[in-house]
Write a structure and sequence with these properties.
The structure holds two protein chains of two kinds. By secondary structure, chain A is an alpha/beta fold. Chain A is built from seven helices and five strands, in the order αβαβαβαβαβαα. Chain B has 15 helices and 13 strands. Classes of the chains: A alpha/beta, B alpha/beta.
């Protein structure tokens, strides 16, 4: 039996999509509604989902310095997003990128890699995520199609997410 | 021979580092050593000025920065003077533009390399690795930082300690800053809770330094045996290796371990364009996670791991789920069983490919 199991073809890993959908986020959270929408878009589009956590490196640090505290915040979120993507049957290729600002990190990322579309969360009432100014910058400078997603209305009103990321991850 | 480097470390300005440095300088002079002041930070503290009296001061370099005239340590003059011991205050200081080094700690390295012993001072908030922690604790972003390696490379790191209450008392008495500035300082950086947190940081830093210095000595007879956990994460230029690095990093946090990552590139193999992008992304991730990135040429992965793990004192190996392309190795007895057999003494952890798990669930 072991021999048979040994030779049994392993289930295929989701094939990387030819297209790449970048979902950058910052500030320690990604709105579940934005994630859900990004997953649906990637699925319909048969794209590889690239969730990217953007870390702002203070000026007195080298851009390649280890940023342990921010990484400690980024890694669990990124893994939850990765898990959600894989559960949705998507190929996922997560990133952590650093820069002097969120937009600088984003620019470094798209200068290093190819993306076909970018899905950006709009700012929330709690001030997480990109600022209106940063969104404007992204719209002007992004070298690809950009989609800005508003968070769930309930999220804006009372300042608390109505659905947690954990609920999406399952 | 390189000079002896002694650093006096404090939690905040005013704990008495400069005072202690001058005391030690005077003591050394009394014992017949040739001592000079390479640089003394002009804090306008009368007690400090009294102690400096009688010690030779190497003249400073003057430089104009716009309308300002600044004074910096004259490294060349100190080296030319060739004392046995130089007292050099505030090692984290950023020199004025146009000086030979950007930072004073770089000046100090030159003085040490000239065979001159140095006693220097610094506050814990300037330590690069603590910059974020200090910001969170105090809401003050410290701009002048120095690399942690400076403390590691010093021969001695000595704590100059004062309780927060005593330091606040010194401030109120005008012994640190003039009275009007002291009142503002007490409301801001020198608040009781800030000082208590900074004191905890500096005590922990010195304790870790003592521990780090003690371990190699205690274990010296054991030669190259590992003194701590060290992870070796095996990666390939594939998206799934990002997860291997993140997993290794999370485990390293719990173990207090250093991490190396390694790609064993088959001899003569040129990565495809896609692989080159993945490799660059892995390098960037490794740097932000503080992981050493190694690239080794070789056709035998297990042999490369055995060699590198031996050189670097690895105790754990993180490996991804072997993929279809390893079928040849599986036929030879499987990569993992070879690793278990041929890498005795190394813990091996297989990082699951989440994509496979999700496929199985569906």
């Amino acid at each position: 039996m072991t021999g048979l199991a040994f030779w049994r073809r392993r289930p295929a890993t989701p094939a990387p999509g030819a297209r790449r959908l970048l979902v950058p986020f910052t500030g320690g959270e990604l709105d579940p509604v934005v994630l859900e929408a990004a997953l649906r878009i990637a699925k319909v589009w048969e794209a590889t989902l690239v969730p990217a956590y953007l870390i702002v490196t203070p000026l007195d640090f080298d851009l390649n310095s280890p940023m342990q505290q921010q990484v400690a915040q980024a890694v669990p979120i990124l893994e939850a997003v990765e898990h959600a993507g894989l559960r949705a049957g998507l190929a996922v290729d997560a990133r952590i990128e650093t820069g002097r600002s969120a937009t600088h990190a984003l620019q470094r990322l798209w200068e290093a890699e190819r993306f076909d579309r970018i899905v950006v969360p709009a700012p929330t009432a709690r001030g997480h995520g990109f600022t209106p100014k940063e969104l404007q910058w992204i719209l002007v400078h992004a070298p690809h199609e950009t989609l800005i997603l508003r968070p769930e209305p309930g999220h804006e009103a009372d300042g608390r997410p109505t659905r947690s990321l954990e609920a999406l991850v399952g | 021979m390189r000079g002896h480097y002694r650093i006096l470390l404090g939690m905040a300005p005013g704990v008495g580092k400069t005072y202690r440095m001058l005391q030690e300088g005077r003591q050394a002079k009394a014992e017949g050593r040739d001592v000079v002041i390479g640089y003394l930070e002009p804090h306008d503290r009368p007690e400090t000025a009294v102690l400096a009296d009688g010690l030779e001061i190497v003249p400073r370099l003057r430089t104009a920065q716009g309308s300002l005239e600044l004074e910096e340590m004259d490294v060349e003059a100190v080296i030319r003077r060739a004392p046995q011991l130089a007292l050099i205050d505030e090692l984290a200081h950023t020199n004025a533009r146009g000086m030979r080094n950007e930072k004073r700690y770089q000046d100090i390295v030159e003085v040490l390399d000239a065979g001159i012993d140095v006693i220097s001072t610094v506050n814990v908030q300037h330590l690069e690795s603590l910059n974020d922690a200090i910001f969170e604790l105090t809401d003050v972003r410290v701009r002048e930082t120095f690399p942690d390696s400076i403390l590691d490379e010093a021969d001695e790191v000595v704590l100059v300690d004062l309780s927060p209450e005593e330091l606040q008392e010194r401030l109120r008495a005008g012994k640190v800053y003039p009275q009007e500035r002291a009142a503002v300082a007490l409301e801001n950086f020198f608040r009781q809770e800030n000082l208590a947190a900074l004191r905890e940081l500096v005590l922990r830093e010195v304790a870790e330094d003592v521990e780090a210095r003690r371990q190699p000595e205690a274990l010296e007879p054991l030669g190259k045996q590992a003194v701590a956990e060290r992870i070796l994460a095996l990666i390939e230029p594939q998206a799934k290796s990002q997860r291997i690095l993140r997993r290794a990093w999370r485990s390293a946090q719990r173990l207090g371990a250093e991490i190396d990552s390694m790609w064993v590139r088959p001899r003569g193999y040129e990565p495809t364009a896609e692989e080159a992008i993945q490799l660059a992304a892995l390098r960037r991730l490794a740097s932000v996670l503080g992981i050493h990135f190694l690239e080794e040429d070789g056709d035998d992965l297990v042999e490369a791991v055995r060699r590198v793990a031996g050189e670097r004192g690895s105790t754990y190996v993180f490996v991804g789920t072997p993929d279809e392309r390893r079928r040849v190795e599986i036929l030879r007895g499987s990569l993992l069983s070879r690793m278990v057999r041929e890498l005795p003494g190394l813990d091996i952890r297989v990082v699951a490919d989440r994509a496979l798990k999700e496929e199985n669930v569906r």
